[in-house]
Every structure is written in structure tokens, then in C-alpha cells.
Amino acid sequence: ETSDMLLSRLYEWQEALEVPLFELLIEPGDPLSPPVLERAGLVRIMKTAMTILEDTKEAPIRRMAQTLVDQLLQIMPELKGLGAWHAVGRRRRRDELGIAAQRRVSDDVFIERTD
Fold this sequence. Notes:
This protein is an all-alpha fold. Helix content is 51%, strand content 0%.
């Protein structure tokens, strides 16, 4: 409420962060928006379905898991290529950077425009 930003700058941030525009407009203390919570739930369900699909040898269960995967892809095509839950591995340490830190963002995003 105390700052003014051009819509074009807001769209640049949206593209750089790969988030819905709505997420840039809500207050930081607000809970996640319903669409984001729904998408997160679908991602978790897809990862579970992929884990079942990869881990089971029983044909009926594999068919059911594949049907679930297909149905989830109809609802949210962006889930294509999502893998199963990791069975082994390690969590990222606090001093390690995530994928967001590896993305390259144009320096123009950080320059304030006066137009």
C-alpha cells in the first residue's frame, strides 16, 4: 500500500519467479492462495501415484496407478515428467542453494524504471 510499481515490472517479476501474478499481490503474512494450495496437493498426489507405479509389480495396481496418473495429467498437464518421491538421497543442507538460486535473471529486473 505504500509503494507503487508498474504492471510491466510486476509481470517481469512474475516471469522471473515463475509464480501466479496473484501471489505477488498478497500480503506476506497471508496464507497461500487456494489455487496454489490445490496445485501443491496435486503435485503430492502425482508423486505418490508415480511412486506406486514405479514400486509395484502387481498388474492391477500398476493399471490403477497409471489411470490415476492419466487423470491427474488431464487436470494439470504441467505434472507431466514429475517423478516419484525419492526413496533415497539427502536433504539439502542449510548452506546449499536450491534451484531458484541457480536460475538466471536479467539485471533489468532489479533496475527501477521511471517511465
